[in-house]
């Protein structure tokens, strides 16, 4: 009830001073209006209090993390970071497996699965690839159609240096809103076909839903097409070009939240990631971690 109490005191204080300032005549005149406004305020703060209780006490609420069931349409989310402990997902690992979907590795071995979402190229992929090469760290790059069209040479380099390239859909749509297989298949096939034209290779059958938005039907369709879906167990806000995290912030969050079996999501568009990845990989290695491809997670 602490969340409710923190708002009750300001409301009483506000009422007392409001009465003194406006005068009792006006209060009488506008009594009905004041009553309605007070009621709306009380409802608002009560809702906020319930939110605090849900958050602070871990009570189940809408989109509760750690659910054993997958909602019809959902945004991927995590909870419980810190001290080398694996976070819980918006759906459990066991439930996701029914659809060949994953977000974290099993067991307590200190391994990391590196993944990068590649929506467009802005000069940061090369230093990322350079750092991965120095540390002999395999990664998976989830690409969209625009990336394949605009940066084919970098895609070739990814393949040549032993990385996997997965499917992030052609147009980076909210796939949870696509309910028919024909439209879903086209988004996936257009990426796979263009990748084949560029590299002469087959795309890795790994799928990451754009923005982490998905539905049960999406997972079923991806599985029917032969894809394994990969969410993540560690990420940070690195995608805003005008609000890039500092070196210190990136290292603090990515080393402080690392855990055994982490599927790490980074964006190849991040200037910070391009600048700190070499140092970050070294820090993780000092902590006893090694790097594995996603194929090891599903074996």
Quickly give the CATH architecture of the largest domain: Alpha-Beta Barrel
Helical run tally: 12
- State the CATH superfamily name of the largest domain: Glycoside hydrolase/deacetylase
The rounded Rg comes to 24 Å
Low-confidence stretches: 1-28, 30-64
CATH class bucket of the largest domain: Alpha Beta
The total strand number stands at: 12
Write structural notes for this entry.
The chain has 299 residues and is α/β, with parallel strands linked by helices. The chain folds into two domains: 2-57; 73-298, Glycoside hydrolase/deacetylase (TIM Barrel, Alpha-Beta Barrel), CATH 3.20.20. The chain is 48% helix and 14% strand. The protein is built from twelve helices and twelve strands. It has helices spanning 2-22, 24-29, 31-57, 93-97, 125-134, 145-150, 152-160, 181-199, 216-224, 247-256, 271-286, 294-298, and strands at 73-75, 78-79, 88-89, 101-102, 111-118, 139-143, 164-167, 206-207, 213-215, 228-230, 262-267, 290-291. Strand 5 (111-118), helix 5 (125-134) and strand 6 (139-143) form a beta-alpha-beta unit. Helix 1 (2-22) packs antiparallel against helix 3, helix 5 (125-134) runs parallel beside helix 11 and helix 10 (247-256) crosses helix 11 (271-286). The relative contact order is 0.15.
